[in-house]
Amino acid sequence: MRKINAMTIDVEDYFQVSAFEPYIAKAQWDALPHRVERNTYKILDLLEESRIKATFFTLGWVAERYPGLVKRIVQDGHELACHGYEHIRVTEQTPEQFRQDVVKSKNLLEALSGKKVNGYRAASYSIGASNLWALDVLQEVGFKYSSSIYPVKHDLYGMPDAPRFIYEPIANNAFKEIPITTIRFGNKNFPCGGGGFFRFYPYALSKWAFNRVNNLENESGIFYFHPWEIDPEQPRQQGLSLKTRTRHYLNLNRMENRIKRLLTDFDWDTMENVFHIDKGVNHD
User: Fold this and answer.
1) pLDDT tens, residue by residue, 56-108
2) What is the DSSP letter of 158?
3) Per-residue DSSP letter, 76
4) What phi and psi, each to the nearest 5 degrees, are found at residue 121?
5) What is the DSSP letter of 154?
6) With contact defined as beta carbons under 8 Å apart, do 269 and 244 qualify?
7) Which of 62, 150, 268, 271 has the fewest CB atoms within 10 Å, i.e. is most exposed?
8) What is the mean pLDDT of residues 8-12?
9) In degrees, to the nearest 5, what angle opens at C-alpha 264 toward C-alphas 41 and 246?
């Protein structure tokens, strides 16, 4: 029997990525052209055609402005999860600021959807060795799992010594951390679960890596991408560093077709279903 993997989408607009923080102030967001609604509907149509359910880690900022998008996500049978309110990295927040942010976002998503929100993913995978207190906060406010620790070494995030697959980070507690998928060579983990790495490497390499995780390690993987990654016509930002420009815009024109191949080549479902998360009761 083939392993089932978790397909996940981080619902945020192009101007909300962490790498653009030095270039675009949050006060500008509402004045910029919004493309997240259009792009996410396109993803929903693609998943419907493929008969695949996914998990949508959604910003509260987006949900507040596009409640119809939230309703479509849950009406189509997908899992709605939390990505914080306005994409603030946990490393930039105090414990109390973080608590307020995730409670605000969770309550908003649940009010709009009528569904219990069990999952959380930090902006830019910004939970790591220096702020593991965030996992305690998530558990305390009612989340069942996080997918926020990336077990790789990266200049912006990562906790390379963290477990590569689902684990319980809080002693004597059922709360789960479910890391993005990596592949291990020697004593180092390499990313293979989506984002810029998926756009940079040839598709065949990603396919090989996921097959290795599924068949040799007998583990379910997690893949993630963003609505802006299937939008090569998005407004181009000026004055970006070479690194930021390359990371953001590389191979956007190839991404949609690669996603279509990925949906066909592997079996997919929501985080809750793949990792057997107790869904709890819906909200009125």
Assistant:
1) 999 999 999 999 999 999 999 999 999 999 999 999 999 999 999 999 999 99
2) -
3) T
4) -130, 125
5) -
6) no
7) 268
8) 98
9) 65
| Two structure tokens written together for 65 | 């402005």
Confidence of residue 279 (pLDDT cuts 50, 70, 90): confident
Q: Return the H-helix or E-strand segment holding 10.
A: strand 4-11
Q: What percent of the chain has pLDDT over 90?
A: 88
Sign of CA dihedral 35, 38, 42, 44: positive
What's the rounded Cα separation, in Å, for the pair 152 and 267? Answer: 25
CA distance 158 to 162: 9
Do the beta carbons of residue 183 and residue 209 sit within 8 Å?
Answer: yes
Tokens 């419907």 locate to: 48
3-class secondary-structure state, position 20: helix
**Cα(first)–Cα(last) distance of the chain, in Å?**
38
Q: What does the pLDDT read at residue 120?
A: 98
Structural domains of the chain in order of their starting residue, each with its CATH number: 4-274 (3.20.20.370)
Q: How many whole angstroms separate alpha carbon 58 and alpha carbon 108?
A: 11
pLDDT in tens, 193-245: 998 889 999 999 999 999 999 999 999 999 999 999 999 999 999 999 998 99
In the prediction, which pLDDT does 116 show?
97
CA distances from 215 to 5, 84, 209, 212 (A): 12, 34, 10, 5
pTM: 0.96
* Distance between CA atoms of residues 167 and 149, nearest Å: 11
The token duo for 24 is 């675009």
